[in-house]
Amino acid sequence: MRAIVAAVLVALVLVAPPARGEGRTARVDMMGAVRLALQRSPELGPGRAAVGGAREVARAVNTLLPTPPRLEVQAGPRWRNDVQRHSVDATAALWVDLSLGGYAGARRDLARALGREAHAGLAVAERDVAARAALAWIDARLAREIVHIRDESLKDAASLVQLAAARVGAGSASPGEEALARAVLGSARAEALDAEGRRVVADAALRYVTGLAPAQPLELAGPLDTRDPPLDARRLLSRAGAVHPDVELARATATRELRTSDVARAGGKPYLSVGPVVTREGTGDWLVQGRIAVPLPLVNPAALEASRARSEAGVAEADARRLEARLGGEIQMALHEREHARELREALLSGAITPAREALRVSERQYEAGSGELSTVLGARRALLDAEERWAEAAADVRRADVKLARALGREPNSMGAPNR
Asked: Could you read off the pLDDT of 365-383 as tens digits, one per residue?
């Protein structure tokens, strides 16, 4: 019986589904990474918590009375000299404080300002997380491109060792050439290992920002290079005057500071205390009265807090104006970087990679035929490897420039890496 139970348990373990997100390969393109980040990135946790907290503040402030009422009770004996029996007097009073400075309304305005600031902060966080996810995908895609380039270089180095060994065996080359070829093979293997380590680091950063499980297989979809039509910079700049998330957050912060000063000022204004007073005298008589307490508005105890909040509001408003003034320059720089990255990519493709490939092909054929030198082959091989890696970096810079431009415009990157139009 125990053997049967053990067999059943083993079978259940073997057929049990893998943990969520660990068995299925995640195939992610750049916009898929952006969508995952907006859904699952831990970087959005504080912003979402702030929005939830603002909702809680709005519910808490929506009360009938901003301050609690007070109940006062007085009781004590009454002595009379002309009678032997003593009696007890008792008084109960209920007080309600009514603000003369609009304290309840100021609190509600502050709650609304906190909500606007929280949503503006979340919008900034979502914009930044989208950019981080796109950049992380670009880095991971570039790392895979470098791995591919160096793997191909490793294969070429292995073929070169075989060719050098054949020439040494035929007596047409010295043993030093084979040793040099093997040294090149060792370096190529080390470079391939270094590229693999770079890929692991890039994948870890992408998994974090997108919320993917560490053990989940990851496959990147889409090419590293992107081809898109020319960008109408003048039209783009003419539409760049919309409210930027950073400016919106700065303005929301300034408004929140102003509302904070209003609450402090209103809280220090006088309160009108009203309420009934009921007294039962020791004689058995009842007295019902109404009482009003009016404070003298000689001093505002919250003047310091109100002044400090107003000064911080002025700083936040100045920061919003500073951001607006800086955005134009950032957009111009991002546009320049975008065009420069494309020019560099095309220059490397046509001016470096194509000639380097032809030089390597010719030098390898000459070396194989016995009319060339190993040093020429190695020089052509190194030139091609450098050109291919520089082109991969340039292609990644093209996409990075698109993401940076989108961020400068306060937008999320679209599927081609260029800013949304």
From this structure: 888 777 778 888 888 888 8
